[in-house]
């Protein structure tokens, strides 16, 4: 199992350029693949490490500098991701002030296919009252979607498996820690198999501190064309659906259908509970194009990631035409609301919490139809409960 370390701050190790491919193993391989690493230069991307993985069919870029997010991808000629107004990305965290605009500075660097939200908090910005050591009152502000996406990894490695089958894994450690607060490490393994249409993101969250630590995580998977277009649809085995707010309620009757790019469109978000397999608690959601011959599928454990959010932002093509499929430990409400309803994970000292999301890319009618049948089978477990307005315990009632 060859392993190549690219970053290890504990050993003062950092590799600027790296390249490996099928040729290093001598004998011809079934599918040619490659992994390369470089450091980007110029503009707001200056100093960002980028690892490009190409498994022969599916390619994607990992960003160790941006919390081990996944920036862009392609599958057999089709783009994975979206066209963000952040056109000069990926943006180095040093150019992202999370407190800009009253706590929405996170948006200054948002352009990834996958960005994690957390860990101390995710969801909307909020402010809480604090008590200072002298007994006086203060206030603490928490920004949109937390900090993890803007923390560089302290350890990065490439691991190649050859037995029993080939696989390519990018490993990374990202620590979210400060004095007088939680100390949580995210150890990620982003894995794909040569020639496959899948990439797995498996994260293990570890409490490094002496006291219990609380955390939330939301996987913000974001898609644009060609999977998102007028007439594209979301398919998922729905148990419950709740509009986040009155604006989302306006589109509830067509929550699963997408419009063409519409300048001035105001975002809509919906909160779901999904049916899962009784065998292994796995569930899924699919974004399918209008013709039904292209789709992206997210698979995840509905017990470990029980809160699923759909984000629709079908604005103008130059303003961010995108939708987010977002499995999470919680809904993206301010943390005090989620904590009061038991949707914050508590890790004891040395405790761990492990989750996995799998992206599967489909490019023919037969494979799309097969997943549709899988979703229908799970949906047969119960008729969806549809709430017309925000309701407890999902969202603040309007």
How far apart the termini lie comes to 55 Å
Percentage of residues in helical conformation: under 10%
Order of helices and strands: EEEEEEEEHEEEEEEEEEEHEEEEEHEEHE
- Count of domain modules: 1
The biggest sheet, with number of strands, parallel, antiparallel or mixed sense and barrel status, is:
10 strands, antiparallel
Given as residue ranges, the uncertain stretches (5+ residues, pLDDT < 50) are none
> What is the CATH C level class, in words?
Mainly Beta
CATH architecture: Distorted Sandwich
Overall SS class: mainly beta
Beta percentage is 35-45%
Strand order of the largest sheet: 2-1-12-13-14-15-25-21-20-17
Number of helices: 4
The value of Rg in angstroms is: 21 Å
Global morphology: globular
Short overview:
The chain is mainly β and 398 residues long. The chain has four helices and 26 strands.
Task: Provide an overview of this structure.
There is one protein chain. The protein is built from four helices and 26 strands. The mean pLDDT is 95. The strands form four sheets. It has a ten-stranded antiparallel beta sheet with strand order 2-1-12-13-14-15-25-21-20-17, covered by helices on one side. Strands 9, 16, 18, 19, 22, 23, 24 and 26 form an eight-stranded mixed beta sheet that branches. It has a six-stranded antiparallel beta sheet with strand order 3-4-5-6-7-8, with no helix packed on it. The radius of gyration is 21 Å and the shape is globular. It is mainly β and 398 residues long. The longest helix has 15 residues. The chain has one domain: Beta-galactosidase, Chain A, domain 5 (Distorted Sandwich), CATH 2.70.98.10. Strand 12 and strand 13 form a beta hairpin.
